[in-house]
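Structure request: UTP-monosaccharide-1-phosphate uridylyltransferase, Toxoplasma gondii FOU.
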Amino acid sequence: LRRLFRQLEQADSSYPGGLGAYLSRARSLLAASQAGANPFEAFSACHPNGERVEVGSAAFARLEALGSEELRSCAFVLVAGGLGERLGYKGIKIGLPCETSTGKTFAQLYCEYLLSIQSDLAREAASGEGEVEATSEGASEEGRGEAVNSVSAGRSPCVPLAIMTSDDTHEKTVSLFEENAFFGLSRNQVTFMKQGKVPALRDNEAHIATSLCDPFEVLMKPHGHGDVHTLLHQHGLVERWKREGKKWIVFFQDTNALIFRALPATLGVSKERTFAMNTVTVPRKPAEAMGAICKLQKKDGSSITINVEYNVLGPLLKAEGREDGATSEGFSSFPGNTNALVFSIEPYCSVLEMTGGTVPEFVNPKYKDGTKTSFKSPTRLECMMQDFPRLFSPTTP
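Returned structure:
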């Protein structure tokens, strides 16, 4: 019994607001799920604002040049909580080879990109340009002082990297970096943030589930990668990066080797359009089973640009008498979400301070039958990092 209480105490202390808040939220969401409620029911789906840029075009070259100047002002967040089991690999995903000619891992590739940015910063610092950048508009007085002192002392400016891990990946991720001397990065520029789990729920009343083999062991499940925002807040990283003069935070996932190819142009769009949040998207076929970026608009004119899962988008459009049809090029009007995100640090930091980074949750129980009274297996509340726009305004769903 003491073991059970210890698990519950740990769950209570690790969840924002405690276990009571988790269970209260769970009961509300489970009731809505049972009733078949759609969180976006009051909205109409529209094509999102953004830029479609063809690689090799003049527009791409211009935006890439504009964004390349912003790379020095970026902090990076790698979401690496998953294993490669679905790929037939027992280790962590960032330990997988990203190409077969050298066997270079995803982790090494990402670190090499950061080292390349860092080398450019070091060259500028050595030539005296770094001091000008360090005192540029947007950095706080404290941040300016830190940056100037770093340049004048001859230290190479660092590109910060935060890595979110899970129970499944934490030790292996830390070991991978330690065994490879952090792939050339310094130890103090990398922060590991371990994500916790939440109790599983066995019914619509949100009773906590226990193991079938041990009634005194709480069944715990992952809470989703939306926890990355809460962890950044708890570690105080965003405030620190802001003081250091960073302007952008780039989020990317464990096996997205191409994101850095598109990053300069993406930063160029973010700067030119003054986006608080920007998502790298790809062409998506109508009804394709991937999340879609949509602009959801209410009748009063208020709107939110956000990822909508394909199984939600279909019914939403159907309720309006529409369908996820194809354009003349054969693609949907709603581009596919890659979960590569760029945030402007000022609005992001402000929202973190107000909300603690707790992204609105959802529940996705697998019911035994159409009555929706019992589950095939225990469920839990989840959250997704791409749902952060719902925190920008308290009136959004």
